Structure formats: C-alpha cells, structure tokens
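## tool: complex_structure
## caller: assistant
## args:
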Amino acid sequence: MERLLFIKSIEGRVLAGITMFVGMMILIGWVAINEEARMQAFVRQHTGRSIERGAELFASLCSECHGEEGYGADERAPGLNNPHLFGYDPVGLQTAAITNANRALVRLNKDIESLSNEMIDPENPPSEERQNEILAEIADLETQINEQQLAIEAAVAQRIEILGALSQAVENGLFPLWDTVVDSDRTADNEVEVFFNNNGTRLAQVGWAGDLRGYIITTLIHGRPGSARVYPSSTGMAAWSQTAGGPLRQDEIEDLAEYILNWDKGSAWTTEDFGAVAQYGKPLADGSLPTGPQPEKVGDDVLGILARWEADEIVGSPTSGELLYDARFGCTDCHRNGASAPDTVGTLARIQNERLAEARFAGYTVEQYIVESITRPGDYVVDGYSSGLMPDNFGDRMTDQQLADIVSYIMTQ
Amino acid sequence: MTILPFPSFLDDVKAKGFKKAVFEGIDDSVERLTAGLNVQDLREAFRGEAASRRPNPRLTPHADGFWLHMRPSYFNRDVTGMYPSFRLGWLSSYFVFFETITGLLLMLWYTPAPEIAYGDMLTILSNVPLGQLMRDMHRLGAEFMVAVVAMHMMRTWITGSYKKPRQFTWFSGLLLLVITGFLSFSGYLLPWDQLSLWAVTIGASMAEATPVVGDQVNLLLRGAPELGANGLLRFYLLHVLALPALLFVFFGVHYYKVVIHGHSLPPQKENIGEDSAKRVPLDKRVYFIPDMLTYEMFWLGATTFIITVLCIWFYHAPLENHADPQVTPLGTTAPWYFLWIQGALKLGDKFFWGVAFPTIALGGLALLPYLDVTPSRRYAHRRFMLTIAMLLISVTTILSYMGLAKFAVQTSAETEIVHELTFEPAHSKVGIGRTIPFDQMIVGAYTTAQMHGADEMSANDMIAEFNAEVSANGQFEQMIQELKDQHLGANQLPLRFRSIPADEAPTLMRVMEEFSHHLDAEPTELPNVWGALVITDNQAGLKRLDWIVSWDSVLIEGGEVQMDEAGEPIIVMATEDVPMVDDDGNPMMDEAGEPMMEERTKLDAEGNPAPVRRIYSDHLFIHEAAAYFD
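## result:
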C-alpha cells in the first residue's frame, strides 16, 4: 500500500497520474455513449413504477365507483377500461365507409349525367364512334355505381350487425339518444354521420379538443361537478388534485393517468370489449341537461300540488328541508332579519295569527299558504316589501318532495 | 526605431532571429503563468534534477503566486508517508472541491420547490446525459466526506496532534466536522423523496427538544411546523450558500493554522514536550515542487478514478417515491452519521439524550486540548486518552446500532414480515417479493401451508387438504372478505389455493419458502399461522400481489405477548352474545321488554372454544417494466 500510494520516482507518479486521468476519461466517455440507452431504460422503468403507484391509488380511491377492473358501476361512474374512451370506434369506421361510398355515388352520377348530356346535345351531336364510347363508359359507370351501392349495403348491414353486438353496451349508456336517430330509418344520411361523429368516441362526445391524457388529467384535477346529476347513485366526482382543493399531488395525478392509460389496447380492442363495460359516460347530448327521465317538477297549481301530496303520500322532512332552504335554493339569503323579505324565524306564528286572519285567505291552510307563496310569489306580497323581488320559477325548479321538505321545515319555524 | 508604430514582438524577431524570439517569448509566458518557473526549470523539476538556477526558482511560486501561497514549500519526509496522516486531511480537502464541482453541475437542473424538486431528480436521471453519474458521485462523495473528516479527527486524537500549539487547529477542525455533518444532512432533503423527507424530519425533530427555544429553532429551520416549501428552500440555501460559505472560511482558517504550526510529526519522532515540526532539517525536506505536486496530482487522478468506478458499477444514489407527509415509511432512520443521536434518544429523555448529550459530547471534544495538557504525545504516556478515544468509537458504534429501526422499535410481527418481503427499493435493497420475475408471477392463490406437510404427501394432496380445512373453518372466507375490502375485483377473487408451480416459477417458490420461514420464526406472536400470496392480473403488463397472514389472536399488552403458566401464549377466544335464559329455559326479558343478552365463549362445530382468527394483508402492484429484479 505504502509503495502503491507513494510511487518513489517522479516519472512513475506522472505516468500513473496520467493513466488514472485517461482511464477516468475513457470510463466517463464509455458511460456517456451508453447514456441514451440508460435514460430510455430509466424512463421505461419509471413509467412502470408510476403505473404501479397509479394502480394502488386507483384501487383505494377510484375503484369504489369506477369498479376494481375499471368497468364502471351501474348509474354510478363510467367505465375507464373502455374502448369508447380510448377512441375505438367500429361503428364510425362503417359510417365512414358509407359516407365515402355516398360521395363516390354522387360523383359517378354526375359523370353519367354529363355523359348523357353530351349524348343528347342537339347543337353538337356526338359521332357514332363517340356515342358507342359514351355508352360503354356509362355502362362502366353503372357497374361502379352498383359496386358502391353494394358497398353501402354491406357497410349498413355490417353496422347493423355491430350495433346488434353492441346492444348490451348501448343499454349501458353507450350512444345515448341513438334510438332517436335509428327511428328515423335514414341510416345512410347526414344525421347518422353527424351522430357518430359526435358520439363515436368519448372525446368526441364531450367535445374535447385535446388528447386523451389531457382529458384524463383535467378530469382528475377538477373532478366532474355534473356527475351527480348524470349518475343518480353517484355522489359526483370530486376534484382530486391539491391544486383544486383535493388530496392528491400532481405526481400522483400523473401516476393515476398513467395507470388509466395503460388499459389502452390500441389496435387490439374488439366489439366484445364494449360488452364488458358496466356503465358508459352519459354526456349532456344537447349541451344542457342529462338525458333520461327527469323527476317531475311541482309547477304552480297550488291545489293540484296539495292533492298530489295527499294521493302519493308525500311527507316532508324538516331536516332536508332546512338544507334545501339554506343552501340549495338560497332562501335565507333574503329571508333573514326581515330586511328585504319576511324573516324565516316566526313564520308559522305569523301565518297563523296574521295572514290567515285576513279575509282574502279565508279557508286557506298553513300548508296551502306556504306552497302558494313559494310557487306563485307574485300573487300576494306582504305589506312593506317590494313585489317582484322573489323569483317566480321555484315551481319549475323543485320536485314535489323538495317542496314538501321545505314546507315542513318552514312549519317548524 | 520599431518596425510597427509601437514596440512589438517583431522587434524581438528582428533583433534575435525568429526561433530565439519565439522561444524566449514562450519562456517568459510560462514563467509568468507559473509565478516563477520557466520552461527549463519545469523540465528539471519533472525530471527530478536539482534546480540549476539560483535562488531556487521552485520556491518562487509559494512566495509570489496565489495558488501556492498557502501551501508550504517543503514538507518533513516523516509526514509525507501513509503514517501518521493517512492522507485524511488531504482527502477531506479533496472532497470539499469534489463536492463543490459536482454540486454546481447538479444545481443547473435543480429547483428547490416541493412540486418541482422530485421531478427534477427524474429529469436528471432520465434526460440529462451523465446526470445519474454526477448525482451518484455527489452523493457518494458526501458520504465519504463525512466519514473521512470524522476519521481525520480520530487520527488527530490518537496521534495527540491536538496538543499545544495546535489547540485552535483542533477546534477549527471540529467546527469543520460539524459543518460537514450539517452540509451532508441539509443535502439529504433536496431530492424530496420519502427517504429524504423522513430522515430529515427525524433529524430536525431533535432540535424541537431544546428547552425554551425548541419550537422557535424548529420553526426557523423548517419554515413551518411541518417540512414543506419553506423548509425545502431553507435547507437548499443552507446547503448551497450558508454552510459552504462557513466551510470555506473555516477551511482557510484550519489550513492556515496547519501550515503556520507545520504538520505534526509522528509522536515518536520528536522529543517529549517539544514541537519540532517547523524545523525541518535539510536532509528531511521534501519540496512541494516537484515531489508533493506530482504526488497530489497522482492522488487526485487515482481518487477520482476510484469514485468513478464505484459510481459506475457499485453505487447508485437512492431515490425513493415522492415525499409524502401523510405516509410514514416503516423503519425510517436518520442519516447514518446521526444514527448515534437517534440511538441515544431511545435511552430516555428527549432533551437530555437528544440535545444535552450531543452538546456535551461536542463541547467535550472542543475542550479536549485544554483538558488534556500533558506534554507527551507518545502512545505509552497517553493510555487514558487513548482509552477514551476507543471508548468514544465504541459508544458511537453501539449508539448508532441502537439507532437502527430494528432496535427496540415495536412493530407487530405480521406487519414486519410482510414489509420485509415487499418493501420498495431503499438503500440499494428491495423486498424479495418484488424480485420475482414477471413471467414467474403466475396467477393463482398460494399458501405457505404447502411447506408444512408430511414428507410423503405430494404438494397437491397437501393443498387439497388445506383447502378443505380452511373452507370448513371459515378462514378462507375471511381471507376473501379481506381481499374484497382491499378492493380486489370480484372476478379475480380466488376460489381455492393451488400448489406453487415450482418448476416454472422457482423464484416464486423461493419467496414463498422465505415467507413461510419468517412466519414460523414467530410462534408466540403468530400461533397457527398461515400465509398466502394471491397473484392476479390487473392490466396488460401489470400484476397485483396480495400478501395475507392469518393467525390466532394472542393477548398482547404493552407490545409483549402475554404467556400463561405453562409458558404458552394466551390465545384470545372468540365470544358471542346469546340470549339469557332462566332456569326453565325461557328467554329472560329486561324492563323494556327486550331479550337480555350475555357474552360467552363461542364454540366451533365440535363444541370446542374457537380462537379469534386475525388476518392481515397488504398488496403491491408490479409492472413488467419496473425492473426490481435486475
């Protein structure tokens, strides 16, 4: 050791030192030329581990609603292990074939028309030779038209077959409103093409202009405020990112996205894969309200409402009424302190002692008075308060149950 | 009369001829660059010849040049060998510069913000050529530096070099040791992974124990009650600005003192009570130029070469998952050089062992040269101080061992075992459960019970028997329920155990044997235990591994399994509520008319009391590209 570290001659040290430096440079050079491969390997490895972490997050946070295997849960949340999400669109392929064939048909018919016009042109009649040529060409074009029509028929049949195979998926929410298009029985026209252009894939359905990763990440970050409306049994998708007040860091969001994207089978998706999905996304097709049956609103027929409650045995709950009154419909915004509207506190006593004592409310019950005040606020305004302040559309915004809840809450005040 | 309108090189050429003018020009430049040595001097020096010019030009760079003005122009031959210095001081200085250079390169790609820092680490590893090598070198250099500086101190103690007149040199060196420790520690946090966050959290929490100002010190250091954006920025600034600045200042002070007093000689080379380092006899002089210079350049090359080799083939800086204040990893420890404090903390009072004890220890070290004022540096005369030195080394080692997570930290056996099999890569180790090659993770449910049958039984028979047993006593159902609770898909729940395909999956077999071995090692805490591994497909290229431990519950109080008189663990029996009946067999009612219930031991089908069966599970996902098994 002593001899190795303390080489006695100067030349020896200089030589050994140079060797070390050169050796080091060679080593670093060797590392450098292998860096490209190493970095790629690291990216692969890191993506793999990112998927693992994403899987863990998905199992603990997302699987409750989106299903352990990502197929979604009925009326709860859409499947993510889902060809529709990843842009596999077998119907769209057939639709595109039909569109192309239709375009070809238009072109071919135009060609025939111009040839026919040439044939019967009175000013410049074609020679006999030319006439034969034209006839041959027309015959050829007609064969082509025939072919195109066969192609259309085949594609339509194919599409019907595919749609048949997708019937379970359609039932689970794939292509909402598709039946309205089918009913028109114009399977080859624009309407159908437009429908599939707008619904063939999830991104088209929601009108997302970016790529799938961006869509997934954005949804993870901000949640989906409307999903409670779309899926009746869902509590709605929360904003998951810390940026939007959720629990996850950005790298965890990326891990989750990486995991979800790993379901993509690329070109290996088949129509059978649609059947495995338990629930599809239900976009707001017209850009406004979710499709499907909507609960009936109360309207403003006061006696009718009360009769319905009687008949359907609708009973209000003061607890949920309070929530609706305070938060959902924001009644307390005005109905407090008695400044801009009568105070909520003491309503019942006021109605019983003051309002119903008035001649105009002879025969009214307290319930009837409250229902009328909510659904037809303009009919009577208490002295001292301006008319027209209270919105007159609560009848269009509440269900029977909600109104009953609110009424029962007010009766406790 | 000049050739050009001003004096120029051309005049020299005219006067002396071209060749001579060029050579003299070069000579002149070299002499200026080296602050005193011309070409001929350098040639003589590197050939090992005596200097031909007088006065000796090899001394001029020390007098006139900046770089060498702090280096002595000659050394005593007795201190240039391996003994007594072991080059530890030189190595410490080497690492100061090595860390500065590699650190500056890493700074180019680093932003000290919690949202960005970890991503920067990934960028350094995935998108910066030589980035990984640079990070490995910086990290390894940091570990070496702490070790080398500490050894340098112990060497100084052992050779008694702290004695008069070098008391202050010792003190400045001690400051450097502390600064080095904090430099390394502050760098620990910067990758912002789980390892750094928790190691630093533990380290920094010691500051909290300081009386009166503890909270304030902690707040000042972390920038918030918990380590976050402010804490990271503060540690970064400490690491790249404050501590290096202090380090360089005290490095200068320390080295200045070393040169002023001369390198202390080996104790036996000087008379007792005498300090002869400054008087170097002519025949013992080893001149810096050329001897020490070539030594140092050679060592520079050799050391860097060795570190390069280590970082290419033997060492990679750890990087764990992103820091997560919500998830405390099992077995967190402070960096190894602070383990002794962590160990001391397990002895009792947080203030005494966490703050007072290290302060006393460091204070004692600082005062050492003033307490030990005996003149002799000979080993034979310093038995007491050498004993103390050995004691210090032993105590530090023992305390460091006590600082390890495995010492006196209670974790329940099942958690410990599953963690041991599945932990994520940390400190270049990984749980063997992750090392099963992807194609050997064959979908199915396997159990350690397979290892326990009679020799003559085939694995299949044994598994069949076990299947029958666990489905009869409800343990299988309990496992299925546990898997459901852990969000394993309904389609993927296993129907029964199958035997381990040892031929296709030898590593899987080995891991299961290991699992079984670990479980068997805990007969008191885990009686009648069996373990299971359920492998399922999750996605293309992604498997899920559920590890399950099922055992009879034992009575545990204060972390200790309670034993009965026979020395057997006390097993907790299941109870159930049954309606009370009176002597006539009629159900008894309470005042409210409800049937009265009583608790009693639950019996199994054969009428024996049934123990409470406990189950524990943990799962991990393995992607085929994750490459834990390379």
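## assistant note: Residues 86-262+335-403 of chain B form a domain with the Cytochrome Bc1 Complex; Chain C fold (CATH 1.20.810.10). The beta strands of chain B are 74-76, 285-287, 444-447, 530-539, 542-552, 556-557, 560-561, 575-579, 597-601, 613-623. Handing back to user.
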